[in-house]
Description:
- The complex is a heterotrimer.
- Chain A is of the alpha/beta class.
- Chain A has three domains: 2-109 and 235-303, FAD/NAD(P)-binding domain (3-Layer(bba) Sandwich); 112-231, 3-Layer(bba) Sandwich (FAD/NAD(P)-binding domain); 323-406, 2-Layer Sandwich (Enolase-like, domain 1).
- Chain A is built from eleven helices and 25 strands.
- In chain A, helix 1 (11-23) packs parallel to helix 8 (289-303).
- Chain B has two domains: 1-57 and 119-145, Alpha-Beta Plaits, CATH 3.30.70; 60-116, Alpha-Beta Plaits (2-Layer Sandwich).
- Helices cover 20% and strands 23% of the residues of chain B.
- In chain B, the strands form four sheets. Chain B has a two-stranded antiparallel ribbon.
- The longest helix of chain B is centred in the first third of the chain and has 9 residues, at 16-24.
- Chain C is an alpha/beta fold.
- Chain C is built from 16 helices and 21 strands.
- Chain C has helices spanning 24-28, 55-59, 82-94, 181-194, 229-234, 261-267, 287-300, 317-326, 346-351, 356-369, 387-396, 405-410, 433-436, 441-466, 471-474, 488-494; strands at 10-14, 34-37, 42-45, 65-69, 99-100, 115-117, 138-140, 163-165, 169-171, 198-199, 216-220, 237-241, 252-254, 275-277, 307-312, 331-335, 344-345, 377-381, 400-403, 481-483, 497-498.
- In chain C, helix 4 packs across helix 14 (441-466) and helix 8 crosses helix 10.
- The N and C termini of chain C lie far apart (65 Å).
- The mean pLDDT of chain C is 95.
- The chains are: A alpha/beta, B alpha+beta, C alpha/beta.
- Chains A and B meet through helix 8, strand 21, strand 22, helix 9 and helix 11 of A and strand 2, strand 3, helix 3, helix 4 and strand 6 of B.
Amino acid sequence: MSKYVIIGNSTGAIGCVEGIRSVDKSGEITLIASEPHHTYSRPLISYLLCGKTDEQRMKYRSDSFYKDNKVRKMLGKTVVSVDNNAKKVLLADGKEVPYEKLMIATGSVPFVPPMDGLDKVKKRFSFMTLDDAHKLEKAITPQSKVLIVGAGLIGLKCAEGINDKVKSITVVDLADRILPSILDYEGSAVVRRHIESKGVKFYLSDSVKTFEKNKAALVSGAEIDFDILVLAVGVRPCVTLISDIGGKVNRGIVTDDKCRTSLKDIYAAGDCTESHDVSSNTNKVMALLPNAYMQGETAGINMAGGNAHYDNAIPMNAIGFFGLHIITAGTYEGESYTSTADGNYKKLFYKSNRLKGYIMIGDIKRAGIYTSLIKKRTPLCSIDFELIKEKPQLMAFSRKARKEFLAK
Amino acid sequence: MKRIYVDEKWCLGCHLCEYYCAFANSGKDDMAKALKNVKINPRIQIEEKDGISFAVSCRHCEEPLCVKGCITGALSVVDGVIQIDSDKCVGCYTCVLSCPYGAIMPSESDDGVVQKCELCLKNSHGKPACVEGCPNRAIIYEEKE
Amino acid sequence: MAINFLYPEYEVIRDKDKCIGCRVCERQCANEVHSYDEDSGCMVSDNAKCVCCHRCVALCPTGALKIVKTNHTFRENANWTGEHICEIYRQAGTGGVLLSSMGNPKNYPIYWDKMLINASQVTNPSIDPLREPMETRVFLGAKPEKVEFNSKGEIKNNLTPQLKLDIPIMFSAMSYGSISYNAHESLARAAEELGTYYNTGEGGLHKDFYKYGPHTIVQVASGRFGVHKDYLNAGAAIEIKMGQGAKPGIGGHLPGIKVGDDISKTRMIPKGSDAISPAPHHDIYSIEDLRQLVYSLKEASDYKKPVIVKIAAVHNVAAIASGIARGGADIIAIDGYRGGTGAAPTTIRDNVGIPIELALASVDQRLREEGIRNRVSIVVGGSIRSSSDIVKAIALGADAVYIGTSALMALGCHLCRSCQHGKCNWGIATQREDLVRRLNPDIGYKRLVNLLTAWNHEIKEMMGGMGINSIEALRGNRLMLRGIGLTEVELNILGIKHAGQ
C-alpha cells in the first residue's frame, strides 16, 4: 500500500512531493495524473508558443525529479472516484490504488458558458494545457484571424503567445476593462493601450450573441470575422472527487490552514481549492501558482506527520504582456495612492493602518517589499509610509527591523 | 551556512560593493575593462538617505518565497544557496513579487531574466566580492547561529 | 575677486583609461576635491582642496588615482623657500596665526637614525627568541631603595603602585575630541588585548569606556576637563599633563563645533562651547605646587594608582625631571618636539622644544647622578617610528615608550597634517558622524594589535642579537649603542661612543 497518493502532477502536486520528502525521506508516494507529460509549468504555454521557452526548459522540475524523490508515477491515468471509507482511489481503467494520506491537486478546467451557435465553430480551442497549446499552434497560420473570448490572464497571454504568428487578434470581454480580476480601470487602460499598440483589437463591455462558422455577432451589433476561436472565459475548479463523497465544497474544495479538506486524511492544494485571503479576510479560490506550491508543500509536510500552516495567502500576480510588466497583490479596498511617474503606473490601497493591495505597471522593482507588508499585515504606523509610497525600500522600516532583515 | 550580513552602522555608502559585484559578475578579468562606460546593475544594491546607508542582497532565506513561487523551476536551493538557472527563467517576475527584501531583480539581458546574488559561487570570483571589497567590514560573510 | 596668491600644493592625477566613474572618490572626500561632470561624463578634481590624505587613492577600485606634489614653482631661492612665501601670503591675507597638526615635519636631525645597535659575536652569544624565553614585560613606578624584611625574616612589601606592561609600549594621550570615539575604542581594545595602556588625554573618559579602565591612563590637564572622582579612580594610573612636545608652553583649544553631545558630557562642559586648556595649570607655579597636585591625586585615588607627570622636552628638561621625581611622581613622561597634536600654532610646533633622544639621555643621566633614578620610571614619546627606535630609547634609559602618531597611522592616518580642519577622511581626527563611521574599531583595534605584536617580535630579535633576554637588562645599557656621524658634544649628551670606538 502506498503511503501517500497524490492526484495531479502540477504545482500543488509537486509542492506536496517536496513537502512530504522534507519530513519523510522514504514513505512510498504514488502520483496519478491524467496528463501524460512530465510535470511542466502551465503558465509557460504562451511562452512556448512565442518561442521563449521549449518543452525541455518548461519542465517544472528536472527529468530525474520522480526518481530523485522516489515517486511512483502513474501518468495518463484518470482517477474517477475516491472511496474515503476504504481509503482507496478508483481509476478509469478499473484499477484501485489504496492510500494512507491522499492529496487532491486536480486543478481546474476551462469553463465554457452556453453560447448560441458555438457548436458551429470547428476551430475552437481552450488555452490551459500543453496539449491545448500544441493544438492551437498546429491550427494557426499567418493568415489566421483569431477571436479570443475573455480578456483575462489566459486570454491575453494566449494573444501575446500567437500575435506574431497570425494575421489578426480580436479579444471580446463582457467586462468594461481588460484583466478585470487584477487591474483597476486606469491600470487596465494603460495595459490595454500597450497591447493595442501591438495590433490586438478589443471589444469590451460586449459579448458574443451568436456564432456562425466564421463569424461572431456581438451584442453591441458589431460583427467579427474569424477562423480560429479561443475560449478563455474562465476556469472551474475540479472538485467532484471530493463533492461526490460529501466533502465540503464551496466554489472550490474547502481547506483549512493545514490544507486539509473536511474529510479525514484527504488534503487538497492548488486551483481546485478555496483558501483564506488574509488581505480581504475572505475565503476564495486563488488560482495562483505560488499559492498552489505553498498549499501543496504545507499539505505534504502535514501528511508526513510534520506540522505546517499556510496562513498568509493573498491574491498576487506577476505577469507581462509584450514587455510591459505588471505586478499586483492583495485586495483593492480602502484609500489609495496613485503615482504615474515616468510612464509607470502604481497604485497602493490601504485601510485601517495596513497596506491592503497594490498595482505596479512598468517599473516593478522590489515589489515584494509591498507584498510582504500585506502578507505580514505590518502596521503602517511602524514604518515610514510616506517614504515607502515613493518606492519599495527597506529604508522605510525601523533600524531594528532592518537589523532583523539584514544582520540576522 | 555562511551568509552575508550587513551592518548599517559601518556602511559608508561608498557603493564599492556594487562595483565589485558588477565586476565579479562581468566575466572579465580587469575592472576598468569590465565597467568603463557601463551603467552597472549589481546584485547588491545600496539604499541611502539622510546619512544612513546599507547594502541589500539576497538573504538566502530558509523559507525562500522566490523559489517556492517560481513558475518555471528556474530558482532552486543548492546547498543552502538560492540559485537561478537563467536558461529556464522567462522573466515573469513572480520572484520580484515574492521577495520581501527586494533583492531579486531583472537583469540587463534582452529577455529580461532575473538576476540575484549567488554569493559569487558561480562566477570566477568564487567568494562574495562585495564582502572583500567593503572597506569597513559593513558586509560580512560568516556563519551565525 | 581678490587675487589668489596661493597655488595648489598637490595635484590629483587620474588615469582616464582606468577611471570607471564609480564616484567613490567623490563620496569619500570630505574636502570635496572630486566631482562628476555630467556634461563630459568624467570625474574632475579641484586640486586646491586636496590635503593629500590618500583616502581616494586607497579606495579607488581600479587604482586610477595618484596624488603628486605640484611642480609649480617660485623662482629658486635657498633662503626664501616656497613654504615661507606661501605662509606670508596666507597670513597677509588673514592676519591669523597659522595652525598645523601632527608632529614637527622640519628637517632637524633625527638622532634615532644616528645611533646603531650592537650584536653579540662569539662571546656572550646571541639568543634565539623563538627558542628561548625573552622578557619584554615592564613594571612602571617607583622602585624601593632597598629590600626590607620584617621581624620574621619575610620580605616586606614596600612597593608603591606599579603599572604592568606586557610590552614596553603604551598609547600616548589623545583626547576624545581631538580623535574620534571609534579611534578611542580601537586604542582601548588594543591596549586591553596587548596588556598595555591607552591614555584619555584631557578629554575625559566616555562612559562606554569605563570598562577598559584597567588599561586606561586618565589624564588631568590644565583645563581639568572631565575630571571627577570616579574618573580618577577608573583608570590604572593618573597622568598630570604639564606640557606636550608639539606645543611646549601652549595650551589647547578644542573648537566648540567639535563639542557635540557626547563630548560635552564627557568633558563636562556645555555643548558647543570652546574647550580651552590654559597654557599653565593655574594652581602650579613651582615644584612644590606640582607636588601638591600629585599628592591630591594620590589621596583621591587612595594611593592605589601611580601618578605620571608628563612634560615637553625643553632646554632644561633634566632639572625639571629631577624636580618632578622629588615632587612625588611615580613616572615621568617626556614628549619630544616631534610629538603630534590635533592642532598647534605652526611656528610653535616647528621651532619650540628639543629632540626626545637628547632629552631622554640627559634626564636619565641626571637622575642617576642624583641617585634618584629608582624613584621614577621614564616614558618617552614624540615620534617613535619603529621597533628599533624603541630599542634605542630603552638603551638610552627609558622604561617604556608612548606612541601616538604611529598608532594613528595603524588606524589609517596618512599624515596629511590637516587634523585642525576636523574633516579627517580616515575617521580619526574628526567628530563628523559620517566620517567617524569610517573607522570600524573591529578593524582598527586589530591593526593596532598587529603593529605592536610585530614590533614586540622585532624588539625580541634585537635583544636576542645583543645577548639580552630581559628588557630590564637593556634599560640604560648605553654600551649597546654607538653614534654615527655625531659630534663630540652630541655623543657626550647621549652618553654613547662613536661607531668604531
